[in-house]
Design brief:
This protein is α/β, with parallel strands linked by helices. The longest helix has 18 residues. InterPro entries: SpoIIAA-like, SpoIIAA-like_sf, STAS_dom_sf. This is Alpha-L-fucosidase.
Length: 123
C-alpha cells in the first residue's frame, strides 16, 4: 500500500510503502500524484520509503513499474530510497534510473532529506 506523505517541498512526491505494493496503488495514488506535480514542474523528485512491514510487489505492479519507467523516466531529477533491509536490491534498482539516486537506511532520514533537497548532487 502507498501512503503519500506531507511535509516535503512542492516538487517532491513522498511516499511510504508497506505490505504488498499493488497495481491499484500505482494507478490510484502514485500516477495521479506524478501527473499533478508535472503540471507545475518540468521534473520532480521522489522520496520512496520502504516501511519495515514492506513485503514486496505484486506481479502486475512489475508491469506498472516498467510502464512508469517508460513514460516518466526523464521526469525525475532525483530519487531517494529509504530502506532498512534489501538495500542491495534498492541499489541495483537505483542503477536503472537515469537520474541521481541514493539509498539510505531508515535511521538516516535527515541526511536523505538533505540530499534530496540539495541543488547539487554531493556524493
Amino acid at each position: 500500500m502507498i501512503e503519500l506523505l506531507d511535509g516535503f517541498s512542492h516538487e517532491v512526491i513522498a511516499m511510504k510503502v508497506d505490505g504488498v505494493l499493488t497495481s491499484d496503488d500505482y494507478n490510484q495514488r502514485l500516477l495521479p500524484a506524478i501527473e499533478t506535480k508535472l503540471k507545475d514542474h518540468a521534473t520532480i523528485k521522489l522520496w520512496y520509503e520502504l516501511d519495515e512491514h514492506f513485503e514486496g510487489v505484486s506481479v502486475e505492479t512489475l508491469w506498472d513499474d516498467a510502464k512508469l519507467a517508460f513514460f516518466h523516466l526523464t521526469d525525475f531529477s532525483r530519487v531517494v530510497i529509504i530502506t532498512g533491509r534489501d538495500a542491495r536490491m534498492a541499489s541495483v534498482l537505483a542503477c536503472m534510473v537515469p537520474c541521481p539516486v541514493k539509498v539510505f537506511e531508515r535511521d538516516n532520514r535527515d541526511a536523505a532529506r538533505k540530499w534530496l533537497t540539495d541543488h547539487e548532487v554531493i556524493e
